Amino acid sequence: MKLSPAELKLEKDKVQDNKFNQYVKRITLKNVRGFDEEIVEFKTPVTALIGTNGGGKSTILGAVALAYKNVKPSKFFPKSFYGDDSMSDWEIGFELIDKPISKDKNINRTAKFKQMKWRRDSFPERNVVYVEIQRTVPAGELTKFNKFLSGDSIQFEVKNLNPDTIKYCTAVLDKKIEDYKCVINKNDPTSRM
């Protein structure tokens, strides 16, 4: 299913007109890895980040995830060792739509890495599902899914993708994915394939 130009316009208009309940509209990366003061805007519900290896795609995705309190910064920006100050003076600014906090206007928040820890005061909460993409490694080479692939599926749950995921991923990938499934390890629900 490919989105028509009219459907694409409708989705862009929803972002522009603040029709979403919660949405990250913009992030500003200051002194974060290779970014001095870079603004990244999200003008559509699905945004593809394309770039070279080491170009900052994962940094941008990690920064976006920090917009919500229940995402631990260490998931995306781990310290190498105790006393590691390589993240000192990192600052990530957010412009968010969050209707439960402010119905009529966007809110701004700033995450800072100061005195060896992240400061994210008054950040909103949101259920964020992070599905790690395993680069281009075939599923059969991922040890955490060997039991599932060998037929021992008792500790795994297979679910259909939700309709929005199918709709937007199909538009970005230009590939039909309605028959794809999500495999979840019951012992570690964050481990998905």
TrEMBL record:
InterPro entries membership: AAA_GajA/Old/RecF-like, P-loop_NTPase
Domain Endonuclease GajA/Old nuclease/RecF-like AAA: 24-187
Stored Gene3D superfamilies: P-loop containing nucleotide triphosphate hydrolases
SUPFAM superfamilies from the UniProt entry: P-loop containing nucleoside triphosphate hydrolases
Endpoints of the signal sequence: none
Protein name according to UniProt: AAA family ATPase
Organism annotation: Salmonella enterica
